[in-house]
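Researcher: Next sequence.
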Amino acid sequence: MDKNQSRLRRARQTRLKIRELRARRLTVHRTNTHIYASIIDEAGERVLVSASTVEQEVRQKLSGKGGNVDAAALVGKRIAEKALAAGIDSVAFDRAGYRFHGRVKALAEAAREAGLKF
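Model: Next structure:
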């Protein structure tokens, strides 16, 4: 079993629990150079809001590449702003099997500070 399969196996339990709760989920995906965040509806079928370091507005505010804690915090703030504008104020956090550490933690804390509840 490789690293990605192990991560997806860890993520499966979280996603089953979130689906059982019928909650919108804030899911995170990270690569070496970028971080992506999406809010997905209760059924898990549609992306309601998304933000990432690939977006032009975010890239202009970054000093370097998108693979650092500062970029993750910027994406967390942006996803919270977009969610609140769309009328979404509470979500369940789906860390997608990643440890709650570093960039994932920075994104979550920035989203909480910007007004998103989870």
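Model: The CA atoms of residues 17 and 23 lie 9 Å apart. Strands lie at 25-30, 35-40, 47-52, 92-94.
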